[in-house]
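seq as requested:
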Amino acid sequence: ISFVPAVEVKIEVVIPEKERSKEEMSPNGKASPLIYKVNGTARHYHLEEHPIASNPYHNPKDVVEASVCHVKDLENGQMREVDLGCGKALLIKEGGEFHAVGHKCPHYGAPLVKGVLSKGRVRCPWHGACFNISTGDIEDFPGLDSLPRFQVKIEKEKVYIRASKQALQTQRRTKMMAKCISLSNYNLSSTNVLIIGAGAAGLVCAETLRQEGFSDRIVMCTMDRHLPYDRPKLSKSMDSHPEQIALRPKEFFRTYDIEVLTEMQVAAMDIKNKTAVFKDGFKMEYNKLLIATGNTPKALSCKGKEVENVFNIRTPEDANRVVKLATSKNVVIVGASFLGMEVAAYLTERAHSVSVVELEEVPFKKFFGERVGRAVMKMFESNRVKFYMQTEVSELREQEGKLKEVVLKSGKVLRADVCVVGVGAVPATGFLKQSGINIDSKGFIVVNKMMQTNIPGVFAAGDAVTFPLALRNNKKVNVPHWQMAHMHGRIAALNMLAHGMEISTVPYLWTAMFGKSIRYAGHGEGFDDVVIQGDLDELKFVAFYTKSDEVVAVASMNYDPIVSKVAEVLAAGRTIRKRDVE
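struct tokens:
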């Protein structure tokens, strides 16, 4: 396989500084308040949608039409960003036909022209979201919204695009959604669909049900104080306030009748009577259930673990508090995990000192391999982060109840005013112990490709499940990543509605440190070799993870859109051999 870009060959490999900082920081888009009503009489519910170009334009002042290029300017398989005067569109030519959609990924605003075009869809170069070029619909995640679609016409060899100005400005479109028909007749303690957990899996499940015309009651419950938010930001931009990282504004939940019960913990499940029993004694009956409780961070088990100012980062409040306490102080991070390393990177400019304690000899060794791990470690060391490797914490010492020192098993004593623990997590499934739902020896809920558990009508999704991964011959795996949780939620919703949809997505994740990103696609567990192209010292490389003769995963830094390209090849069911990348 040659990795020749399907887009224009002069793809820039390095993200310009300006764009790079935008990528990590831009808040998720809010649903635009402008709503277009369709009377859905056929199914007795109202569909609501932001106006998109394929609808008749109600307000001619909102429409712009412009000639954007000559028909011969674009070859098949090419994309071009075009300016319509009051906003840009992405013009695509595939199979002899032109298509025009929004030019920015609705997730964090990546320029899709730098992404990968393949078989009727474009994949984002940053985080792997996929959009259908004919409809603009989102087909793989992360992110919640689709792209606006614009009308294209050809006249006298010229290509014209006709678009709504508002869509050009927002660059996003929320799919049509049903509303609940008769909320007033409901018994408070029963719902048609109950979703336990309000992360990406839970929210996408609820939204997908509404998009598919489901018009009965949906209740989501969460232990969190907040409506669903962008959890990856907790360690990547720790100053974020809950409203800045909300995935949807409050009004959205009201508009589409998605009820969210915050600070509500399920204590037990009565599967026979289809009832969830909450910690406070409240009971709720359901018809269909989604369990998307995610995981619980592991705590330290050493002496002094109850000292003040030791944190697992679970909520925006935790993250904000750590930043406040760490400013000009000494920080110790236990665990060179994704969370630990992202927090370390974020705090270096604010703290007096940052130290990382880790059992392995290099960070990310099991995930990225030793060579990439070392390159990342060097980048941290050049940013004043100190590493204490191949050791662990034996004691946390306090002064007046507050953390003062972290003692290592090696005997070393580190000054510490705040400690962040990132030593992994366990699935939050303790409440299912006697439920009859099939759980494996590690506590993960076992589901099939339709996200169904062994109990009819009970589905599970996200970080707490193991599921068969098509990419690795249907091996049961746990993939605790943001994109996968979105897809799980979608598949679960479609199968609650009996669509018979199986999951086949390629895992895609990213980590951000010091304004740089490592992107990763595939499932590298058990890799036996790493083929590296590019320059590790310059942090401009691509690493292919192989098992026997096959590429099972890829990681890159400053090498876009290679990871999205490999993800597309793998998504098409094609095998990449080791010799193809050597």
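Residues 515-580 form one domain.
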